[in-house]
Predict the structure of Cysteine desulfurase.
Amino acid sequence: RVFLDHNATTPLRPAARAAMLDVLAASGNASSVHADGRAARGVVEAARTAVARLVGAPSAAIVFTSGATEANALVLHPDLEIAGQNQACDVLVTSAVEHPSVLRGHRFPIAQVESIPVDADGRLVLDALEQVLAGHAAAGRRALVSLMLANNETGVIQPVTAASALAHAHGAVMHCDAVQAPGRMSLDMATLGVDFLTISSHKIGGPQGAGALVAAHPHSRPRVPLIAGGGQERGLRAGTENVAAIAGFGAAAVICAAQGGEEAGRLRGLRDRLEKEIVERFQGSQVAGAGVERLPNTTSVIFAGLKAETLVIALDLAHVSVSAGSACSSGKVGPSHVLAAMGVGDAAAGGAIRLSLGWSSCDEDVDVAIAALGRVVPRLLNRPVRAA
Ligand code: PMP
């Protein structure tokens, strides 16, 4: 099978699997004082260091969670501590194209949430952000800004560094959901200038069920736990750590951190070939966000006159895995909120599929996908395809 759905989840890297199997063969609780417990603690702390290195943060500032959804819910709360100072936030300012775990998973009262529009290419309108932040600052309200680094559906990269500068100029706190970035683009918290960052294990070749909230400063944290209990993870996310998943996350983080730009270049080569073939062969097909900087592994293609669900099933039967819009929203009826925010009409958005590549992708995958599309799309459209 050809798996072109790395933005939904990545296959487990062999090194992550090996690290997990080692842990599964042991029996310690990371909070126990005996040797078994200390061994488990050692695994968790080594993974913490690896994840910290991946994003350029102090390891003391990492809270392991069950994934990015939990990390986003943990940090998107009005009561925060920044560099040791309590900072109560009055409003959450976010973008129209955020992941549902931000849009629906935050812990603010609904009336205190504001959404900034994006342009036709899916990039945040910075002037609109500035206006909103200036308004809140003038009224004495502190904002928490949450902006994703790269969109999971389109791969469009947001101007996070510029947004952080604006946020801080207006006394706001800045959070970034960077889930889709590691291994695909450079990622450094200091460069981004954010106070908090979210990442997820299963988007970087680690297992599902682990993620992290990272703070830029060891004394920055949400003040209200997501889960209260035994005090694990700085008292913010109680419960016995999932040591095996965290170990796999750490192993995947080590590989991503070592990759530099080469892997991103390889993915870009594959993605560009795939995209070029599609646009050339299929009349009326169109790439969302084509005009701006995007992740090198992602393409969201709108096929005129097709239903994405039908195309996804036909490709599945041809042994090619892709998503309609985002996997997270594919179970529900209705077009993607991301494409809608970009001004794509319902009919066109209904024909969008996302192809996303990753560490396991190779030239042959692209060949197979192109051949499958060449068989399937004309059949669904019931008209001949242009010769390649
Ligand atoms: N944010 C973004 C941008 C994502 O793509 C995803 C996964 N689809 C999440 C958050 C949620 O991550 P997790 O599955 O680890 O909860």
